[in-house]
Each structure stands twice: as C-alpha cells, then as structure tokens.
Amino acid sequence: MPEAATAPMHDGAPARTGRFAAWTPLARHERLQRLGLGLALPLAMAATPLWLQQGVGIGCGFRALTGWPCPLCGGTHACAALVQGDWAGAWAFNPGAVGLLLWLLVLAAQALAEGSVGRRRPRRWPWAHPAVAGAVGGGLLLSWAARLAGAV
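^ that's the sequence the OP posted. Answer follows.
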C-alpha cells in the first residue's frame, strides 16, 4: 500500500494528505470545551443514582400537564440503572432512553479524546452523522409510542 503524501502545515510540521488526512489542531478554547463536554455527561450520569436517592429533580412537565409520559420519562431511572450495570432494568424504564444515553456516551468519549489530544478529525465521525441522530430520535419516539400503547 503506498504511503500518503505529505504537505507542510501552517506551523511547518508535515501533515498527511489524501485518505489519511491529519487531524486539525484545536484552539485552546475548543480544547477546553471538548474536555468539558466529554466529562460533563459521564459525571452527570454517575451522579443520577445519588440524585434519585436524594429526591433531587423537578419531575416531568409534560406528564404534569397532559397525564401522559413524555418520550424521556423514565430516562433518569434508566440512566441510574445503566450506571449500576442493570441493563435489563434500564431497558424496562425506557428502552429509547437507553439508546440515546449510549449514543451520547459515544459522543462524549469522542469529545474527551479530541480534547485530550488537542486535535479533531477533519471528517465527521460515523456516529456523528445526522442519520444516526435521526435513528436514535426515531428509536426514542418508537419506544414512546409503544409505551403509550401499553406494549412496553
């Protein structure tokens, strides 16, 4: 397999071009933003069992107004169950939220990795594609519809 061609970057260091393009350097504020985002979600998820135990939370406004669960109802309990390793319990609370939480964790890991190395991939990651976001959102809505119909 032939080696990728190199071209000088703006800072004088060689960069790969073509199929294996070099990652783009991040400005300091972008790096800190990615590190913050990459740490915020896992830390918030880790705290959910404690929040539930303490009774911290405002409840669901949609359910208070309509009497019906919203697409994310049960998501906090599903998150707490995931953190505690109870996959079946998480699925029972809200199957759509499980998919959403796992996808968000992948995005958080990407942000943490990019923030740690100080570079980002020039091309979009496969899991950051809008079609993936649509599939996750569609799964959440299908799960909600099944819960409203009493199937789950």
